[in-house]
Write a structure and sequence with these properties.
- The complex is a heterodimer.
- In chain A, strand 5 and strand 6 form a beta hairpin.
- By secondary structure, chain A is an all-alpha fold.
- The two termini of chain A are 49 Å apart.
- Chain A contains 26 helices and 6 strands.
- A two-stranded antiparallel sheet of chain A has the order 1-2. Chain A has a two-stranded parallel ribbon with strand order 3-4. Chain A has a two-stranded antiparallel sheet with strand order 5-6.
- Chain A is 71% helix and 2% strand.
- By secondary structure, chain B is an alpha+beta fold.
- In chain B, the strands form 4 sheets. A 6-stranded mixed beta sheet of chain B has the order 6-7-8-3-9-10, sandwiched between helices. Chain B has a 5-stranded antiparallel beta sheet with strand order 13-17-14-15-16. In chain B, strands 2-1-4-5 form a 4-stranded antiparallel beta sheet.
- In chain B, helix 2 packs across helix 3 and helix 2 packs parallel to helix 4.
- The chains are: A mainly alpha, B alpha+beta.
- The interface between A and B is large, with 35 and 41 residues.
């Protein structure tokens, strides 16, 4: 005899919640990818690899692929080397403004690529204030990638380092290791997994970098992404673009597999006590110099380009003024194809709001669908775990949600362009095309924030609520929802910021009349004249200001214990 | 005979599919106003028992009755049972008052009445004025009292406590135990509390149920269980150290008292109080050598090896006697048969 009780924690209805996000990704991610693959590997109704092989063997394409690969590799190595001292700074030392700086580090990371590209253009471009022209060289790209990804290394490794506890290092010191040897033999090996995690993110971002290379790479330095765009938008060679997209997808999948292998091959060396390292003020001369140099580097390297951009946006032909900003309200060319720049701000905000709503709703569905409670906390957990087919489905769903994280915006844009142009799914001419594409890009970020948040709710709280008389829905409404409303707000902010700065997919999909700010900036750059450049800068400053506000709000709301990226 | 408040009948729960049952045909009852302690080692199924009674765990067999009504298939939120979780499970997003009021809110008690009831409860657990504090600011003992107030706010038919003292400092335990008992007796609650600590179990319980490996091994009052553990495993679990074969102590039994009829290979429990140690070397029969002497809570615990049989037995001795009983001393040991209990294997 086996009575089955209606339990708060059973409920197959939860599985239904996974349907909306899965359908969404199937339609707007999988289907476009399938369209790309078909386009690249079929010709005249047959599967035919010849065209694909021809593209892949073309010397100019091979050069592009090699460049993409070693450019990402160099970027990653550079980021890790430069980022580690920054991580050490936050892990070990206390200094004035530490918390604010930790938050501000995120600004470059969420900054739209066009804004950062523009900032570096003002520094190291043809008329840059440093007088050194690096655009069109690999250096410009490496520097910009470092600017973008520095925070990834500092924050990921820094928080792992800070949470590591000091006693193992102290043990090494008492056993005769110098501080340097203790660092090399104890600290760095234990940081291995967080360094690899950061490196994999940096590598992926560099591998799929689009806006930076478009603006700073000139005609010589071209990545796969840029080539896909050019083949599509300039030469209308969709087949070549599709073939390139396939290579890019294969590359990304290989990177993801390699990195997850590397991370899994050795388990994390967790401390046997969960001690958080106490950061302290720098005492010795050497320590002070270390802190000082680090802060100086961050200030100059991260703040410098943005400061220069802001200052330059206020300079006019006649001295200082707001000319660039006041010109934003009108369309200079008078042609209907050119939207007044200020309208672009309105467009961007509307798209960002729609993206925010779509991705947060889908993210919430996914989070609660996947939040099959795991018994954690006490030592009783082992016997409470029930292994079921459900958990396999869960991990598949979870992996599926994360896939767009690895693919590039350009793939999403190009895929939607060729897949969603015909009935029954003719969205290319619809206003909703952009928010949908942005949501595909934002959803993994949102899910990454919400899934662990819902999972971290102690299932005993739900049990306690049920025993106090709350039904399923009331448990959700009075326990689950209030407990993660901050994370929902943070996820919404992220989605908003992602959409606001999105350039890669947008450049494929944007309609003439609702140009977004990043597109307007890029287009201004393409047109001659100092006024266009200063207009672009003014727009970039506005975009930067909005993003900075969003980031500060996010940081205020972010619970101190949550994970970093 | 009146219907018990809570009646659990051959309850079976299988947490690991295909594995051995976590609870294997558990039956026990709790009368109105009775306090029952479920005592057992960690992993013995105690928490599962509470969760199954509360409706939080699938039941694979048997039934649960409340005041005679079968509630086995009733949803957890419809049962009028309260459970105080081991780690309290206070809602971190609500303040103290809102935590206590949660159950009342679920029962749509009007705001004014709720407010009044919450204040009464906070007075009862001596947390007056704590209503607006966030739960994260409370100490362990305060958290526990909030959890208790929250659990009894809705006047549950049965209050269940999962290891109520395990998260507290040793120094707090004794006083909180007394406090809890006073409160239970005052309110006339029917209580089931589970613990792995026999002192806690014996301190507040009308009846103690011993749960091991998913089965109830024995039940009775604290005194009954302590002095008649019945089986060797229960005796050892309760902390009795002196479980020995009859043959090993037969020569040390005080002669002339009641006959001592047991087969030689039977195990017996020798209570500490039955062992009398004297610092005289009688030689031959009745001789033992002191192995160790340990100071514990105002008395000395003496461990000595019987010279005849080589088994170790334990006794408690007063401070004065202890000074003559240094390790290595040969002493005489006499065992009062009144303090020897037969055990099932």
């Amino acid at each position: 005899m086996g009575q089955r009780l209606p339990l708060t924690r059973r409920g197959h209805w939860r599985a239904l919640l996974a349907v909306p996000p899965l359908v969404f990704l199937a339609l707007f991610f999988v289907w476009p990818v399938v369209a790309i693959v078909t386009r690249g590997l079929r010709s005249g109704g047959d599967w035919n690899l010849n065209a694909f092989v021809d593209v892949v063997r073309d010397p100019s394409i091979v050069r592009v692929m090699w460049f993409t690969l070693w450019e990402s590799l160099l970027s990653t190595i550079l980021c890790v080397l430069v980022g580690l001292p920054g991580a050490a700074l936050f892990a070990k030392f206390e200094f004035r403004g530490r918390r604010v700086l930790w938050a501000l580090l995120l600004v470059p990371f969420v900054l739209p690529t066009v804004v950062a590209g523009l900032a570096f253009l003002t520094l190291i471009g043809p008329a840059g204030i440093t007088g050194v022209e690096l655009t069109g060289t690999i250096w410009a790209i490496l520097i910009a990638h470092l600017f973008f990804n520095y925070a990834v290394v500092v924050r990921t490794v820094g928080s792992a380092w800070a949470g590591m506890g000091e006693s193992e290092v102290e043990a090494a010191r008492t056993l005769g290791a110098s501080p340097l040897r203790a660092l090399l033999t104890v600290t760095l090996p234990r940081l291995r997994s967080s360094v690899l995690a950061a490196a994999s993110i940096v590598f992926l971002f560099s591998f799929t970098s689009f806006g930076i290379v478009m603006i700073l790479g000139g005609v010589r330095q071209r990545t796969i992404e840029v080539e896909i765009y050019d083949q599509t938008a300039r030469f209308l060679h969709l087949d070549v673009a599709a073939a390139l997209s396939i290579m890019q997808l294969v590359g990304v999948v290989m990177i993801l597999v390699l990195f997850s292998r590397a991370r899994r091959s050795r388990s994390d060396f967790a401390s046997d006590h969960a001690g958080t390292q106490r950061s302290r003020r720098a005492r010795t001369l050497g320590e002070r110099a270390f802190v000082g140099i680090n802060l100086l580097f961050m200030g100059l390297f991260l703040g410098g380009p943005l400061a220069v951009l802001i200052v330059r946006s206020f300079s006019t032909s006649k001295g200082w003024g707001l000319d660039a900003y006041s010109a934003l309200g009108s369309s200079r060319r008078g042609s209907s194809a050119f939207v007044a720049p200020l309208d672009a701000v309105g467009n961007s905000i509307r798209f960002a709001l729609a993206t925010m709503v779509i991705s947060v709703l889908l993210g919430c569905c996914a989070a609660w669908a996947l939040a099959r409670p795991r018994r954690a906390s006490s030592g009783r957990s082992v016997m409470k775990q029930r292994f079921s087919a459900g958990s396999v489905v869960d991990s598949l769903t979870e992996g599926f949600l994360m896939i767009p994280l690895g693919t590039s915006a350009v793939t999403v844009g190009f895929g939607c362009l060729i897949a969603l142009g015909d009935p029954p799914l003719d969205l290319r001419s619809s206003w909703w095309m952009l928010p949908i594409a942005h949501s595909v890009i934002a959803l993994p970020f949102v899910a990454r924030l919400l899934v662990p948040a819902v999972r971290s709710i102690d299932p005993e709280l739900r049990d306690a609520a049920a025993l106090l008389g709350a039904g399923k829905f009331r448990v959700w409404f009075t326990v689950d929802l209030p407990m993660i409303r901050r994370q929902i707000a943070v996820a919404a902010g992220f989605a908003f910021a992602v959409s606001l700065g999105e350039f890669g997919a947008t450049s494929f999909l944007v309609r003439a009349r609702d140009v977004t700010v990043p597109i307007a900036i890029y287009r201004s750059l393409g047109r001659p004249g100092g006024d266009n450049l200063s207009q672009a800068m003014a727009l970039a400053v506005i975009l930067m200001a909005v993003i900075a506000v969003v980031v500060l709000i996010i940081d205020r709301l972010r619970p101190p214990t949550s994970a970093e990226f | 005979m009146s219907v018990p408040r809570l009646d659990v009948r051959s309850l079976t729960v299988r947490l690991a599919q295909g594995g051995p049952p976590t609870l294997d045909g558990i039956s026990f009852a709790v009368d109105v106003g009775e306090i029952v302690a479920v005592l057992g080692p960690s992993g013995g199924g105690k928490s599962t028992l509470l969760r199954a009674v509360a409706g939080l765990e699938n039941v694979d067999g048997g039934s649960v009755h409340l005041d005679g009504a079968d509630i086995t298939s009733m949803a957890a939120h419809h049962r009028n049972l309260a459970l105080m979780f081991q780690e309290y499970a206070l809602f971190p997003h609500l303040d103290v008052a809102a935590n206590v009021a949660y159950g009342l809110r679920m029962r749509s008690v009007p705001r004014r009445e709720r407010h009044q009831r919450v204040n009464e409860l906070l007075d009862l657990v001596r947390l007056r004025g704590f209503g607006e504090r966030p739960v994260s600011s409370l100490s362990g003992g305060e958290r526990q009292r909030v959890a208790l107030a929250r659990a009894i706010a809705t006047e549950p038919a049965v209050l269940m406590l999962d290891e109520p003292l395990s998260a507290l400092d040793r120094s707090l335990r004794r006083s909180i135990l007394t406090e809890l008992e006073t409160l239970f007796r005052q309110t006339g609650l029917s209580v089931v509390h589970v613990t792995h600590d026999q002192d806690d179990a014996f301190a507040i319980a009308d009846r103690v149920v011993i749960l091991r490996n998913g089965r109830i091994e024995r039940s009775g009052t604290a005194l009954e269980l302590w002095s008649e553990p019945g089986s060797e495993s229960v005796a050892r679990f309760l902390g009795h150290r002196c479980v020995v074969p009859v043959s090993a102590i037969r020569d040390y039994i005080v002669r002339g008292s009641s006959s001592f009829e047991l087969p030689d290979d039977a195990s017996v429990l020798v209570l500490d109080s039955a062992v009398e140690v004297a610092a005289v070397d009688v030689g031959g029969a009745g001789a033992a050598v002191v192995e160790s002497l340990r100071f514990a809570a105002g008395r000395y615990e003496l461990e000595c090896r019987l010279l005849d049989s080589g088994v170790e037995i334990f006794a408690t001795v007063s401070l004065e006697v202890a000074s003559e009983l240094l390790p290595g001393t040969v002493v005489s040991v006499r065992i009062d048969p009144q303090g020897v209990r037969a055990l099932e294997p």
